[in-house]
Write a structure and sequence with these properties.
This protein is of the alpha/beta class and 690 residues long. The protein contains 20 helices and 19 strands. It starts with a helix and ends with a strand.
C-alpha cells in the first residue's frame, strides 16, 4: 500500500517535473534562461560578503544584550539601546540616532495606544512550612525576571494557595473560597484576572501557563514561561502574578491533593509610569541622487524579557552584523556606495513599528522593502527550524523571491559543506556549528513586526527570517548558550546580500530577476495544481485566475526598482498565458460577466485617518472600538482577518477580496468576508464606495 504522504510527494514531484519540462520545451511560451541570467550577484561579490560577515562578532553582541530585561520603555531596555548605539557608532555610523515617543498610556499612534512604561524594583515568592517559616523560594525577579508576569503591580500577601485549574469559567470557582488568597492556574494570568481577582477577590495569581505550544512544550517541566497581565487593567482587576515552572506547579498540586495546605509569602514592588519608547535607527546613505530617497529597511525587535537570546537578541545582532559588514566593505572600497539608502531599525515589537510608521510618515514613505529578523540563531538544542517567509498574498512582489533565492543559495552550499563536498561558501563561524542551514522557503506567516510593514496602510513587501518552533521560546532557557554563531552569520549574510541587491537594482538587472521569478512561478504553479484536488471546477478556476493575477502583479512590481515596463516583462506575461493553458485554465473571453448582488458587490476603501492593523501589542483597536452587539460579525480572525482588510483598496468588491483570499486559504465563505468588513465599517476603519 502506498501511503498518503508518499502519494502526495510522488504527485508533487511529477507535477513539478512536468511543468519544468513543458515550459523548457515550449520556446514560444518562455525563453530558455542562460546560467548568467539566473545569477543575481557576481560570485566574487558574494564571496566578499561571506568573508566579512562574522557570526562570532554577532554572538559577542548577543552575549551583552541578553543581560538586560528589555521590557518596553524600561530602565534595562534603555541600557540595551545604549549598547546598540555604542556599537553602531564604533562601526562608523555617525548618523545613528534614537527616536523617542511617549509611553504614557493614552497617546494614540494610528491604531496603537501607547502603553505606560513598566518597571520592577523587587519581587519574591516563597513557600512556607507548617510553622510559617520560609521553606524555599519559588520565584525571584533578580534571578529570573520571567518569574514575574509582565504588567504586574505592587502587592504583598501571605496566604493559602488554591488551585482553580484553567480558571477561565465560573465553574472553576464553584465551591472554592479564594477571597484574599493566591490562586494557582494553568492559564495566562491576564485571562483569569477579571474572574479570580475582580469578581472573587483573589489577592494574586500564580501561573504555570505555557506561552507557546509546540511539539516539545510539555517535555521539559523546568521552564518558566512568559506571563502577561493587562496593560490597561480595570481598577478591580489590578493585581500581580508570579510565573512558575510546570514541575513546581506539579509539586504544589501534589501537596494540595494530599490535603496538606500550601501557604505562600508573596511580595512585589512594580509599577506603571509615564516613560519613553526608544527606537534606534542608522543608515548607509544612497549615492544615486535619483534613488537615494528610496530605502531598504532592516528591522527586528529589541524588547524582550531576559535573557531573550533567540527571541530576539539574535535578530537584533544579526542586523547589527549586516550593518557592520556593509559599512566596512563600503568604507574600505570593497563595494561602492549603494544607489538606494539601506536603513537599520531597532523598535519595540509590533507596537514600536506601528508607532514609528504612524508618527514618521516621511520615513515610512521611503521604505520600498523590509528585511525582518526575529529569532535567527537557535542552535541544535533549541530544535529550531529556520524559515524565510515572504509577503502576504495581498502584496504580490518579487522582493520575497529575491530573499528566498539567496536563502536557497545558502541552503545549497551549507549542505554541500556539511556533506564533505568542496564549496567556496561554507558560511561557518569558527566557534559555530557545521550543519546545513536547511531553511524552509514559505509564504507569508504572521508573528512579528514584518506584518506591520506589510499591513495595508503601508503595503511594504519583504522577507521574514525566523526560527519556528524553538522549544525554549519565551522561557528562562532562551539563553546565549543556545545560540549558534554559524546560524547568526548565515542570517546576517542572507540579509546583507538581499539588501545590497535591492539597493542597487536597476533596469540592467531585469533579465536575471525575471529568470528567477519564472522559476519561482513554476514551483508555485506545481503547488497550486496540487491544491486543486477536491475543489469544484468553479473553485479551481477562481484559484487559478487569482494565482495568475498575483504572478502578473509580481512582474509589474519590478517597475518600482527598474524604472518602468519593458518588453521582457511583456514576454514574461506571455509565459503566464502558456502556463494557464498547462494548468487547465478556461478563458473568460466571450463569457458573460456574472452580475454581483448584495453584500458581494460592495466596494470599500480604507479610512486614511486610521493607520495600522486592528490588533497591536497589549492593545487591540478592534476590541476597544467595536460595539459588543457587532462582535458576532467577526467570523474571520488571525491572518484571514488581516488579509481581508489588506485587500481593501477602493476598487475591489467584497467578492474580489473573497476570491483573492481563496488563493491562500482555499474556500472561504463570502458572507464571512462581508460581515467582517461590515463590522469594520461600524468603527469607521473602512467606508463604502458604492
Amino acid at each position: 500500500m502506498v501511503s498518503t504522504a508518499k502519494a502526495f510527494r510522488t504527485y508533487r514531484t511529477t507535477t513539478i517535473a512536468l511543468l519544468y519540462c513543458a515550459v523548457s520545451m515550449a520556446g514560444s511560451v518562455v525563453g530558455a534562461a542562460s546560467a548568467n541570467d539566473s545569477e543575481l550577484l557576481p560570485v566574487q561579490v558574494m564571496k566578499q560578503f561571506a568573508e566579512e560577515t562574522s557570526g562570532t562578532e554577532a554572538k559577542r553582541n548577543l552575549d551583552q544584550i541578553t543581560l538586560y530585561h528589555r521590557t518596553r520603555a524600561s530602565r534595562q531596555y534603555a541600557e540595551a539601546v545604549d549598547h546598540v548605539v555604542t556599537q553602531l557608532r564604533a562601526y562608523g555610523f555617525d548618523n545613528a540616532e534614537v527616536l523617542e515617543f511617549p509611553a504614557d498610556g493614552k497617546t494614540m499612534f494610528g491604531t496603537q495606544k501607547s502603553r505606560m512604561a513598566w518597571d520592577v524594583d523587587f519581587a519574591e515568592l516563597w513557600i512556607l512550612d507548617e510553622t510559617g517559616t520560609r521553606e524555599r523560594r519559588l520565584a525571584s525577579w533578580d534571578a529570573v525576571p520571567l518569574s514575574v508576569a509582565q504588567d504586574s503591580l505592587s502587592g504583598a500577601v501571605t496566604a493559602e494557595l488554591v488551585d482553580v485549574g484553567a480558571g477561565l469559567d465560573e465553574s472553576d470557582y464553584k465551591g472554592r473560597d479564594i477571597a484574599g488568597k493566591l490562586v494557582l492556574t494553568g492559564s495566562q494570568p491576564g485571562a483569569i484576572a477579571d474572574l479570580a481577582v475582580a469578581k472573587y477577590g483573589a489577592a494574586g495569581i500564580v501561573s504555570y501557563a505555557p506561552n507557546q505550544k509546540t511539539a516539545w512544550w510539555k517535555q521539559d517541566d523546568r521552564l518558566v514561561r512568559w506571563g502577561h497581565l493587562a496593560s490597561f487593567p480595570a481598577e478591580r482587576s489590578k493585581t500581580f502574578a508570579f510565573m512558575i515552572s510546570l514541575g513546581e506547579a506539579r509539586m504544589l498540586m501534589a501537596r494540595m491533593q494530599t490535603g496538606q495546605p500550601v501557604r505562600l509569602d508573596a511580595k512585589i514592588e512594580a509599577y506603571h509610569k509615564p516613560g519613553t519608547y526608544q527606537l534606534i535607527t542608522a543608515a548607509i546613505e544612497g549615492a544615486d541622487p535619483a534613488l537615494a530617497s528610496q530605502e531598504i529597511a532592516f528591522t527586528c525587535h529589541l524588547d524582550h524579557p531576559r535573557p531573550g537570546a533567540n527571541d530576539n537578541a539574535s535578530g537584533c545582532v544579526a542586523i547589527l552584523e549586516a550593518a557592520r559588514t556593509l559599512k566596512k566593505m563600503i568604507d574600505e572600497g570593497v563595494l561602492p556606495a549603494p544607489k538606494r539608502t539601506i536603513r537599520f531599525i531597532w523598535p519595540a515589537e509590533i507596537e514600536g513599528s506601528i508607532i514609528f510608521l504612524s508618527a514618521r510618515p516621511d520615513m515610512a514613505a521611503r521604505i520600498k522593502a523590509n528585511i525582518h529578523m526575529d529569532m535567527v540563531g537557535g542552535g541544535l538544542e533549541t530544535k529550531a527550524v529556520f524559515r524565510i517567509a515572504g509577503s502576504p498574498a495581498s502584496i504580490p512582489s518579487f522582493v520575497p523571491v529575491v530573499g528566498q533565492y539567496f536563502g536557497e543559495f545558502v541552503n545549497h552550499h551549507s549542505l554541500a559543506y556539511a556533506s564533505g563536498d568542496e564549496t567556496e561558501f561554507p558560511l561557518v563561524a569558527q566557534d559555530g556549528g557545521k550543519e546545513p542551514l536547511m531553511a524552509l522557503m514559505e509564504p507569508f506567516s504572521m508573528g512579528s513586526d514584518h506584518q506591520i510593514f506589510s499591513e495595508g496602510t503601508w503595503g511594504i513587501p519583504g522577507i521574514y527570517l525566523h526560527d519556528w518552533p524553538d522549544r525554549y521560546i519565551h522561557t528562562n532557557f532562551d539563553t546565549a548558550a543556545m545560540i549558534d554563531p554559524t546560524k547568526l552569520k548565515r542570517a546576517a549574510y542572507i540579509g546583507a546580500i538581499t539588501a545590497w541587491y535591492l539597493a542597487n537594482m536597476a533596469a540592467d538587472d531585469m533579465p536575471a530577476a525575471l529568470a528567477v521569478l519564472k522559476q519561482d512561478t513554476l514551483k508555485r504553479a506545481a503547488m497550486i495544481s496540487v491544491g486543486f484536488a477536491g475543489l469544484t471546477e468553479a473553485e479551481k478556476q477562481t484559484k487559478l485566475r487569482m494565482f495568475l493575477e498575483s504572478e502578473a502583479a509580481k512582474i509589474d512590481s519590478l517597475n518600482q526598482f527598474t524604472g518602468g515596463q519593458s518588453s521582457q516583462q511583456s514576454e514574461a506575461k506571455r509565459f503566464l498565458t502558456g502556463l494557464e493553458t498547462l494548468l487547465g485554465g478556461q478563458s473568460a473571453q466571450g463569457q458573460p460577466e456574472k452580475a454581483l448582488e448584495g453584500a458581494a458587490a460592495v466596494i470599500y476603501t480604507r479610512n486614511s485617518n486610521i493607520k495600522g492593523p486592528m490588533n497591536g501589542f497589549g492593545y487591540s483597536y478592534l476590541d476597544d472600538k467595536i460595539d459588543p452587539a457587532n462582535r458576532g460579525l467577526l467570523k474571520l480572525n488571525g491572518e484571514q482577518a488581516y488579509e481581508a482588510l489588506n485587500l481593501v483598496n477602493g476598487d475591489r468588491t467584497v467578492q474580489d477580496i473573497h476570491d483573492w483570499m481563496t488563493l491562500v486559504y482555499g474556500p472561504v465563505a463570502t458572507s464571512d468576508v462581508s460581515d467582517y468588513l461590515a463590522a469594520l465599517e461600524t468603527i469607521d476603519v473602512v467606508k463604502r464606495v458604492n
